[in-house]
Write a structure and sequence with these properties.
Elements lengths: L13 H12 L6 E6 L5 H13 L14 H7 L6 E4 L8 H10 L10 E5 L7 H12 L5 E8 L6 H4 L3 E4 L5 H10 L4 H10 L4 H9 L2 H14 L7 H13 L5 H19 L12 H10 L5 H16 L4 H12 L1
Parallel strand pairs: 1-4, 1-5, 2-3, 3-4
Helix pairs in contact: 4-5, 7-8, 8-9, 10-12, 11-15, 12-14, 14-15
Amino acid sequence: MSDYFTIDSVIGQDKAKAMLRRATAGGRLAHAYLFRGPEGVGKKTLARAFGNYLNCLAPLPHQDACGHCASCRKLRANNHPDRLVVEPDGAAIKIGQIRELKHALSFPPFEARLRTVLLCDVHTMRREAANSLLKILEEPPPGNLLVLTGNATGEILPTVTSRCQQVPLTNLDRSRVAAELTAEGVAPEIAATLAALADGSLGQARRIGSLELLELRRTVVDTLLELQPGRPDVAEQVFALAENSVGLGEQLPQLLELVKLWFRDLLLIHHHQSGRIVNLDLHRSLTQGQTRWPLAALPERLELFARAERQLARNCNRALVCEVLYFGLL
């Protein structure tokens, strides 16, 4: 699959785009850039698009890649000799990868005026790898431009950030994310919920949607609403619900976070702050939940989620954690 993007194709991030275009228009390119912002807002996409524009042989008047010249065709096919990409090997960028990069940069670009080097997720870079990168980051060999991406919440060594021109990216407007998801075929109510849950991160919204966690969240909420303490079938249904939840594996904490947000929405509704709710596709269950769980009962329920989160972090038995949580929520 091609990773070819134009700057115009990047959703939002108008300030970052304007900053890059000013630098190229004035011939004031820095030797290294750090695209930093929340997860899933387009850092890698914009970094690639920027590199595509710099290597385009027939750039458009408004400063973007044409998408059709020989260079753009090679970039689209992922076979341009002067586009280098370094991504985490497993969980981190390792020193061996940086050594290979430094060796590659000891040779001039093959055909482009400027070789673009994309280092993705540098917040995962191990300290020894980051220290090995510092010299070429401060003064890359001629004909090379380094573009780094990193999450806003990730730890990046100050010695790395100080050697780069920082390009801040921000969360997108939720309505923009919802509109994009709707254009991709997502039902409007679900798109609005995904945009709210992801807090303006299109990448996060797509990821949550792809995991089908919203439907599982609905199942958990509907089951809890139906169950009445004291009924003979309660234990059996709770055990079944816990078993299905544990079947998610590593996605279990995400499911419980979504269910917790549903209870948080109940709290907001009780406080007459419906405009802040995120489960926009569950109006019916939220209405039912107001009757089932009065305001005084909600802080205790939310604390149950915090306890379950701590237990999962300590690798406690997942089935038991879910059983205790679901019984406590009734």
